[in-house]
Design goal:
412 residues, three-stranded antiparallel sheet, 15 helices, 8 strands, elongated, disordered N terminus
Length: 412
């Protein structure tokens, strides 16, 4: 048995024995907490000393277990030194003016967030957003910050930690935003009385590289090299409509007016769940290319799942209960079709959306038109993120200043 464990058990045993004899201990009084120190093993790095105590809220509410990291065993080699380090903090938590201020750890705050806000219908988070919170807290945030008190989370430390993560900028930005939402929740519920420490944290979501853009010929070649008719039509819809992959999966036959060439977009489909559309702008109906409408009519006659309430791309592997899995379709059919066509560019479902946006811009279509086809909330996203000029168009534009290098005319 370790020394620090022996000390902890002895303290508890002594308190229990004296309480049984009717002796009043400091920890028995509502106004005082002794607490205890525990050595916590870390998978990476030295063990940590953690101070734990029970907070007794006002008005007779149930006790709340609290904890605070004191430091590592490198800083405090023995339990005795760790106990000395906690003396001042013990005085703080027992001060009368501090009784109403809960000193909560990130882990405890996350538990409160899950119980009171994460699935709150008034907040109206989508299933995919909820899953994003669950995944990022479990895999990234809690392993680092679970036992750290909210007071000890500092902007510079969070920013430095984010920089150390081997993740894409967009993923780091999501972690930052989730942590910020947690602190905002604590502030609203009066669990934390300071400014949100995540607000000043700098973390860009800008891509490290621009996405590859396909030409019309390349998109046509990919479609022609796909064998399953369902996957071929999925790529055709993504290429000719710029629907997001979740929106392509979420299509039902009742959403399509093939005679009037119109999409009535109602839902998305992510993983195994239906979702709402991404934004208010996404929920707007949109025009359909007549040639695409004609191809969809042929597909409806071909598929076994052609009733109004059936998924347009219902998977036979689930007896039509769910649409095709897009990642499998991409891996097994779309990427091999690109290779067969001699295309070396990176291809994903989003590539087709980016490609259509860039092609329309290169053809001189107005920004507002492209924005509404893509159903972006603002034109800034359309211009800054989705549209790319072609090399040919940029060379033609530069040719307008070719006169700089013309030989000067000789004076007569």
């Amino acid at each position: 048995m370790r020394f620090e464990d022996l000390g902890r058990i002895s303290d508890r045993t002594m308190w229990s024995a004296q309480r049984a004899l009717g002796v009043e201990m400091p920890g028995d009084r509502e106004s005082y907490q002794q607490g205890y120190i525990e050595r916590v093993h870390r998978a990476k790095g030295p063990d940590q000393w953690v101070y734990r105590w029970w907070e007794v809220p006002a008005h007779g509410a149930a006790r709340i277990h609290r904890s605070k990291i004191i430091g590592s065993v490198k800083r405090f080699p023995t339990a005795a030194k760790a106990k000395l380090a906690v003396d001042n903090f013990r005085a703080e938590i027992n001060a009368p003016e501090e009784k109403t201020a809960a000193i909560m750890t990130v882990g405890e705050a996350w538990a409160h967030f899950q119980a009171n806000e994460l699935r709150d219908p008034d907040v109206d988070r989508s299933p995919t957003t909820i899953q994003s919170y669950l995944d990022y807290f479990k895999a990234r945030i809690l392993p680092k910050w679970k036992d750290v008190s909210l007071d000890d989370v500092k902007s510079v430390a969070v920013e430095k930690w984010l920089r150390s993560l081997l993740l894409a900028p967009a993923s780091k930005a999501k972690i930052r935003n989730h942590m910020s939402a947690l602190f905002s929740h604590c502030i609203r519920h009066e669990l934390y009385s300071k400014l949100n420490p995540i607000a000043p944290v700098r973390q860009s979501a800008v891509r490290q590289s621009d996405p590859d853009i396909l030409t019309l010929d390349e998109m046509r070649s990919i479609i022609n090299n796909i064998k399953p008719a369902a996957i071929k039509m999925m790529v055709a819809v993504a290429s000719a409509s710029a629907l997001r992959r979740s929106e392509v999966r979420g299509l039902k036959w009742t959403d399509l007016d093939l005679d009037k060439c119109w999409f009535n977009l109602q839902r998305g489909y992510v993983s195994k769940s239906e979702t709402k559309m991404k934004t208010k702008a996404s929920r707007k109906g949109m025009e359909m290319l007549p040639a695409l409408a004609a191809a969809m009519m042929i597909w409806r006659d071909h598929t076994l799942y052609n009733q109004d309430d059936d998924w347009v791309f219902a998977s036979p592997f689930t007896n039509g209960k769910r649409p095709y899995w897009p990642d499998s379709a991409l891996k097994d059919h779309v990427k091999p079709a690109a290779i067969a066509a001699g295309i070396t560019k990176r291809v994903s479902w989003h590539t087709f959306r980016h490609s259509l946006a860039s092609f329309l811009g290169q053809q001189g279509e107005g920004v507002k038109t492209v924005q509404e086809l893509l159903r972006h909330a603002t034109s800034r996203i359309t211009v800054d993120v989705y549209q790319q000029g072609s090399t040919k168009a940029k060379r033609l534009a530069l040719n307008r200043v070719a006169g700089i290098f013309a030989a000067p005319e000789k004076k007569l």
